Amino acid sequence: YPVLAGHHEVEVEAGGVFAAIGIDVEPGLPHTLRTLYDGVVVVLSGATIQLEVNATDLDGNDFGTDVIWFTPTDSVDIANGTREGSYLLRGLRTGNHLLRFTSGLAEGEVFVTVEQGEPVQVELQIVDIAIRTGYQIDVEVRLYDFGGNRLSSNPEMVLLTSGAGTFVHDDGDHWRLHLDRSGEQQRVEVEYGTVGGEIFIDVEADPLY
Q1: How far, rounded to the nearest angstrom, does the alpha carbon of residue 92 sit from its chain's CA centroid?
Q2: How many CB atoms lie within 10 A of CB 147?
Q3: Burial per residue of 89-119, b for 16 or more beta-carbon CB atoms within 10 angstroms, e otherwise
Q4: Whole-angstrom distance, CA of residue 195 vs CA of residue 60
Q5: For 175, which of 99, 107, 129, 206 is 20 to 30 Å away at the CA?
Q6: Is 99 helix (H, G, I), strand (E, B) or coil?
Q7: Which of 44, 52, 42 is nearest to 81 (CA)?
């Protein structure tokens, strides 16, 4: 009855004649599952870490094994690694997530905390209806990381430009654009570090301005 997984040499003797054979013993079915990671897994949105899953059979053999994952929607993205039981985990939505995994009748779980990542997208939002010369309109700068999490912007890193007028920081992610030039499809551009975005606005001429 094989117990210890691995390659074993078995020697036999009969009538003074000795012979040896090699036996490869494979691990049994997973009885328990666990990750080779102490505590809660912490990953930034958009960042990738390696996660190892090991199984133990009824004889105590410990080995890496592939599993089926059950994850909350948009919590993380999981891809296969380079060996059995090896996975690449990428953070998506921020928060604390409980990930479950199974292999046969064995089950396991791991807690993952996804934190905000680096900005990968910047958008401009203008909700004002009256866009004409002489007016000031609100321009909101919206930053997002890889998982679509909204980030707060640092005003010192925001660069806003437009031929329609000049910008002044208001509060938080909001800026005021003073309109002094009319025209259709005027570009409003934003740069934040390595990411950028743009929108186009139509500015009406106010005869009183």
Answers
A1: 3
A2: 22
A3: bbbbbbeebebebebeebebebebebebbeb
A4: 52
A5: 206
A6: strand
A7: 52
Beta bridge partners of 121: 144
Rounded to 5°, angle at Cα 139 from 137 and 140:
145
Structure tokens at 76: 């993380």
Q: Rounded CA gap, 2 and 8, in Å?
A: 10
Task: Please report where in the chains the tokens 């117990």 appear, as a residue.
Answer: 3
Place of tokens 């030039």: 181
Q: How far apart are CA 6 and CA 22, in angstroms?
A: 10
* Residue 142 CB contacts under 8 Å (≥ 6 apart), including other chains: 122, 123, 124, 125, 150, 173
Q: For residue 117, what are the CA distances in angstroms to 57, 91, 99, 147, 154?
A: 39, 9, 20, 8, 15
- As a whole number of Å, the CA-based R_g of the chain is 30
What does each of the 209 residues of the chain score in pLDDT, given as a tens digit? 455 555 556 666 666 666 666 665 566 688 999 999 889 999 999 999 999 999 999 888 889 999 999 999 999 999 999 999 999 999 999 999 999 999 989 999 999 999 999 999 999 999 887 899 999 999 999 999 999 999 999 999 999 999 999 999 999 999 999 999 999 999 999 999 999 999 999 999 988 77
**Which pair of tokens denotes residue 60?**
């105590």
